[in-house]
Write a structure and sequence with these properties.
This protein has 168 residues and is mainly alpha-helical. It has helices spanning 5-14, 16-27, 33-46, 54-58, 65-75, 79-86, 121-125, 136-146, 151-163; strands at 87-90, 94-97, 99-100, 104-105, 108-109, 112-113. It has a two-stranded antiparallel sheet with strand order 1-2. A two-stranded antiparallel sheet has the order 3-4. Helix 3 crosses helix 9 (151-163). The mean pLDDT is 90.
């Protein structure tokens, strides 16, 4: 199990093409999502996200209208005020939580989320290996990037390759 973030970034980048080939491999063959989900759950159980929080430093968090309502209520402000003070509009992703280059997500405090109980759905399901919409294969397009910064995704992809007999 690799958890060192420098190693994850380096190996994730080095294996990006391989991970793209693996995505095509998975989409063209039958496999058991249940087995892959069980593998990913085992990896998630071994990694404490609060020791890492790299996703909050690196990735953007998309917010829906429901997220805005929930977060505004938690912060005891109006949804309009929440949108103005805590979100930005991204051309590629739509409405996202505001972030800084230095520390990432505006709500990241050390390695913990200061709005954890009200965090956006996209954060609740991250890294979308075990929990997410559709099959694991349908979410694979996200994993090549995430394998460069998330130990859960990197280790899950490596375990999936082994389970499915993927040859590099």
């Amino acid at each position: 199990m690799i958890t060192d973030l420098v190693q994850i970034r380096m190996l994730g980048e080095r294996k990006r093409e391989e991970n793209e080939r693996f995505r095509r491999h998975m989409k063209s063959r039958d496999h058991s999502d249940r087995i892959l989900r069980r593998i990913a759950e085992g990896i998630e159980e071994q990694i404490d996200c609060t020791q890492c929080a790299n996703c909050c430093r690196v990735a953007t968090a998309i917010v829906t209208e429901r997220d805005v309502e929930r977060l505004a209520r938690a912060l005891r402000i109006s949804p309009a005020r929440f949108l103005a003070d805590y979100t930005d509009e991204s051309q590629e992703e739509g409405r996202i939580l505001r972030r800084t280059n230095e520390s990432g997500c505006i709500f990241l405090d050390g390695n913990e989320c200061s709005v954890y109980d009200a965090r956006p759905d996209s954060c609740q399901r991250f890294p979308h290996v075990v929990r997410g919409q559709g099959s694991i294969a349908s979410r694979m397009w996200q994993f090549a990037d995430r394998a460069c910064y998330c130990p859960i995704v990197y280790n899950s992809l490596e375990a999936f390759k082994k389970e499915l007999g993927f040859t590099k």
